[in-house]
Specification:
The complex is a heterodimer of chains A (179) and B (176). With 179 residues, chain A is α+β, with helices and mostly antiparallel strands. Chain A contains 4 helices and 7 strands. Classes of the chains: A alpha+beta (179), B alpha+beta (176). Chains A and B meet through helix 1, helix 2 and helix 4 of A and helix 1, strand 4 and strand 5 of B.
Chain lengths: 179, 176
């Protein structure tokens, strides 16, 4: 009689242990999968369209004479040449790369509505030259706002050929942190 | 008597075990349902995203129509001088599948709706927004994308293409 009771107790203890182990494993798995979610990173047509449209935007920088104003795409090319030692200035005396940064910042700030109460928390733009042998050379990089606790991160890119003969391309990448 | 008692106890144990197994089974079914609902929500989100991207593509393809496309054959670009001529022409509401269509120039970015200066032939290009048409749909959802808007400008006796970033906003009527 005592033997039968002992066996029953052992069974119950074993069963409780199994249930406990399964529950602990489940809780650990759930806390890992739900506790620290990585924000979604995705390509966005809207961001790609924004970059494409920005490239056509006419700047206030004319290099040879007024009104031969450069668009953003041409100004990026000029800025790349500037970095390679072929220094150029706008007719108003401003450095090409300075002008590019000021114009791009103004355009992105106005179009992306960055801020605590805005649609977006921050953005980061990265412009670099990618040579045929995959060497990257930074042309311009700046950001606004921050990338903390983004609900999602969307991004897009635009490629600009340096010349019609090849010799690499200039890549423009924009990442936006959504509120 | 002793045998009967042991039999009853065994039956009780079997019942307990059966209930326990049923409870464990139900517990896992609930977890399964929870996981399924999560997966289904993700699929639904993806479907919504794809539908939105398709509408965005159709919106940006508006810039390739002869009524709006830039003369310099730039992609994703509309001609402001063409656009001002179709402003207010409600007939285009029958032509394009949107309940309303407007374009906001770069000068109008960040401005409140009431502060936007409406573009007419009299004030063009010193204005902020082109209202192409509006069918005044009661229940509509606005979708927007960025485009470039170019126009011919004269300075120092030279004409050149002046382009600016703009936003095209189309309303789609939601079915009740």
């Amino acid at each position: 009689m005592i033997k039968i009771n002992n066996r029953g107790q052992h069974e119950i203890v074993g069963f409780v242990l199994i249930v406990l182990i399964v529950s602990i494993v489940g809780v650990i798995f759930l806390s890992i999968s739900l506790g620290n979610p990585e924000p979604d990173k995705q390509n966005s047509i809207e961001i790609s369209n924004l970059l494409g449209a920005i490239m056509h935007h006419t700047t206030k920088c004319a290099i040879n004479f007024i009104p031969e104003y450069k668009n953003v795409q041409d100004l990026i090319r000029e800025c790349y040449k500037d970095k390679s030692g072929n220094l150029k200035e706008c007719v108003n005396g401003e450095k090409v790369c300075n002008n590019l940064k000021i114009e791009l910042k103004d355009i992105l700030d106005k179009s992306l509505d960055v801020g605590i109460d805005g649609i977006n928390k921050g953005y980061n733009i990265n412009i670099y030259f990618n040579s045929d042998d995959n060497n990257n050379e930074l042309i311009l990089n700046f950001y606004e706002g921050n990338f903390n606790n983004c609900s999602s991160i969307v991004g897009g890119g635009h490629s600009i050929p340096v010349s019609s003969f090849g010799f690499g391309i200039i890549e423009t990448e924009l990442k936006v942190c959504k509120n | 008597m002793m045998v009967k008692n042991i039999d009853k106890k065994a039956q009780l144990r079997i019942q307990e075990m059966a209930f326990m197994l049923l409870a464990v089974f139900l517990f896992f079914v609930l977890i399964g349902l929870f996981a399924l609902s999560l997966v289904y929500t993700n699929i639904n989100d993806s479907a919504l995203k794809i539908a939105e991207e398709r509408t965005l593509s159709s919106l940006s393809s508006l810039s390739d129509t002869p009524e709006m496309s830039c003369t310099s054959s730039k992609s994703n670009c509309i001609d402001g001088d063409k656009l001002i001529n179709i402003v207010g022409k409600e007939i285009y509401g029958e032509f394009w599948p949107y309940s309303s269509l407007k374009v906001i120039k770069f000068s109008g970015f960040g401005k409140e709706n009431k502060d936007l200066i409406e573009c007419t032939r009299a004030n063009y290009p010193e204005c902020d927004v082109f209202y192409v048409y509006d069918k005044k749909a009661k229940n509509e959802r606005a979708i927007s994308t960025f485009i470039a808007m170019c126009r011919k400008e004269l300075e120092n006796d030279y004409t050149y293409d002046k382009c600016e970033l703009s936003k095209i906003i189309a309303g789609t009527k939601l079915e009740a």
